[in-house]
């Protein structure tokens, strides 16, 4: 019989079996002793002094110094046989083992301390229950070795990115009848979760499964430890980055980085059973429909307005697409985001947090449905992730979808999509630079005014800027594209394309002579170059025989006219939602 079952059998509230260890700061499972057990760590109390005996020594005290001739006068304690029961201590007030009673925390606060991140994004909260059961739950969590693609550990001091993958694999009880029963488990639902360094905000970016991308070569680790390289494929659906050709979650992580420029630090993967078991564990999730739905494909049948769904009905809700919007995957993503926000609110509600039975069921359901990388497989690491997520207010968790355009190759009927080359990069850039999509920080007006003044001054002096452009590792054609942008859009007519640089650079630089410092600042402001890109040195002679600066485009160059500095504000996004607001699917 396990610890929790034993507690219940003795009519003990499972919540009262978890005690804070003051030495470690962690909650530990402590059962009422059925035999001789070590007491719960607590403050040491002095034993009563009697017959001149020396007081008991505390940890760290130096041994008492007394004359040797008095040692014989101290009564010798009889030796206790190994394994024998210790003599019972006096049960009076001074001899009691029980430490002084402290004011009890409310059960709600105590349970909230255990669960930590249960108010976080639902699939990340899969990890939040981790330390509730300690090592028992750790055995429930499956792992996949993705090598160096995932980080080896987790830092509580940095921003972090977790790729959440929902697979369409049909294994598991009751899942045989869902569509393609032979599916190897593709990346059906994909969310790149970014949690800000200061924990004021988080962004959940959905990546459409039908997005056409180039899947890179990826390295997989076989169960026997052998490594294998799986060749990439160009212009395939994103969901084939998992399962197809034997690809694992590490391949999906690499595909995300190739498409967005954002590196996932870790992954968490769940299957169909996760939705069913999690919603059942919390007693159902409230959803809202703008119109009644009777979907013959997903078997979802609900009236207009609010309904409570769990188990099979909850899975049908998130799988339905033919009854929402344009009956495509993009509209289903919106419904899934609304569902996840609702489930997150349910998990953080007092109805869940104050119900130990629900929390136990939730912990079991969550960990059994979870597969993670080696770097976050331990309970302590999952606990750390959960506690960091707990710090983010739900109102500042933003749900977005990668901006896309219909795939031109599809012809008249568009079944797949491609990344919007204009709208998507600013979103990727904002996430990569830890910029919030909710208004959590007030920008200093003085800094804005100074930037505006600098840009205004730059435009007025653009005609005086002389610069030679070299390609030092940027994409082919970048120097010519930058020249055209400077001359056509910015009026920097004294600019010229000087071809390729002698060597490649990882970062873009602008070298200038001392008397060109003002021109360098003006050009840096126009291009969005950071101060670290400015390189005091010497000038070169341009084709007109005049001194000019040297702009070398490095591997970090993002394109003509694209700012090279981190954005101070996220771009405006038309379709976004936050985790604290309920919406009706339409």
Would you write up a description of this structure?
The chain is of the alpha/beta class. 26% of the residues lie in helices and 19% in strands. It contains 15 helices and 26 strands. The protein has an 8-stranded mixed beta sheet, sandwiched between helices. Strand 22, helix 15 and strand 23 form a beta-alpha-beta unit. Helix 3 packs across helix 11 and helix 13 crosses helix 15. The chain is elongated, with a radius of gyration of 31 Å.
Write out key terms for the chains shown.
15 helices; six-stranded mixed sheet; 586 residues; alpha/beta
List the topology elements:
Layout: H1 3-9, E1 18-20, E2 27-29, H2 107-115, H3 122-128, H4 135-138, E3 142-144, E4 160-167, E5 187-195, E6 202-206, E7 212-215, E8 218-221, E9 227-230, E10 233-237, H5 249-260, E11 266-270, H6 272-281, E12 285-289, E13 293-294, E14 301-302, E15 305-309, H7 312-319, H8 329-347, H9 350-353, H10 356-368, E16 371-373, H11 379-390, E17 397-401, E18 404-406, E19 417-419, H12 424-432, H13 445-460, E20 466-471, H14 478-489, E21 494-500, E22 509-512, H15 517-527, E23 534-536, E24 540-541, E25 547-553, E26 577-578
Parallel strand pairs: 3-16, 4-11, 6-17, 20-21, 20-25, 22-23
Antiparallel strand pairs: 1-2, 4-5, 5-6, 7-10, 8-9, 11-16, 12-15, 13-14, 17-26, 18-19, 22-25, 24-25
